[in-house]
Amino acid sequence: MGIKILPLSEGTFTIDQSKLFVPFDLNRDDLQKRPIGSLLVEIQPFAIITDRDILICDTGLGFSNPDGVLQIHQNLIDNNINPLDVTKVLMSHLHKDHAGGISKKDEILEKQFLSFPNAQYYVQKQELNYAFQKGFPSYLTAEFEILKESEKVVLLDGSGTIDDYIRFELTGAHCPFHQVFWIQYGNEIIFFGGDVAPQLQQMKSKFIAKYDYDGKKCMELRQEWWERGQKEKWTFLFYHDVKNPTWKS
User: How far is the first Cα of the chain from the last one, in angstroms, to the nearest whole number?
Assistant: First the structure.
């Protein structure tokens, strides 16, 4: 009974108050030349392969390569995974850098289609409702409008379990209805903390971010998870970490 984790990096970006993601080349660009307060982040969905499922944790920015292929699809193909074989998509929240790859527009038909048509999408019901209330610039609702009508969507309510081995917990903190996931398979515990636990360094410091809905709660949750993870030997997945996509305790 094995498990495999694949970081699906879409690249490194800076983001400032404009909430625009600007590509950043670590070998060429100078962070000091970007607007003051710019954050340096990786955009990094994950694929988790078990004997039961091919899971995707968040879906990236939704950018396409010059051939028109979604970046997240290309990353899977490069790892010998057919996007049609993905069985579950776990969404921590619906901010545009996490939800952009939920769907793709067919320009000829002028219609949105789910990017993973054979997968179940797991989304917090209140997060979906809140996203449509809040809207732009944090949420690009056109990218996930399809979630409201698709039979492939499972709307979660609060905290619970999916198929006996995936646990989800409504945390809020980064945004009001953010959720996190534990995938427990055999002796492995994989933790995906979305944007409440986006980078390794934040787990190790008492860091409070102004961009979080409740920065103090984010900090407290990170401390709690880091302590538990050390004891229980979690593998952490860090969506925005430039250097450490995964970390085994």
Answer: 21
Token pair in block for residue 163? 């198929």
pLDDT for residue 29: 67
Q: What is the DSSP string of the chain?
A: --EEEEE----EEEE-TT--EEE--TTT--GGGSPTTPEEEE---EEEEESS-EEEE------B-TTS-BHHHHHHHHTT--GGG--EEE-S---HHHHTTSEEEETTTTEEEESSTTSEEEEEHHHHHHHHHH-TTT--GGGTGGGGT-TTEEEE-SSEEETTTEEEEE--SSSTT-EEEEEEETTEEEEE-TTTS--HHHHTS----TTSTTHHHHHHHHHHHHHHHHHHTPEEE-TT-SS-SEEE-
Ranges of the chain with pLDDT below 70: 1, 16-19, 26, 29, 31, 33-38
Task: State the CATH number of the domain containing residue 26.
Answer: 3.60.15.10
Residue 52, number of CB atoms within 10 A of its CB: 15
d(CA 167, CA 195): 17
Specify the number of domains making up the chain. Answer: 1
Structural domain harbouring 212: 3-248
Q: pLDDT tens digits for 191-243?
A: 999 999 999 999 998 889 888 999 999 999 999 999 999 999 999 999 999 99
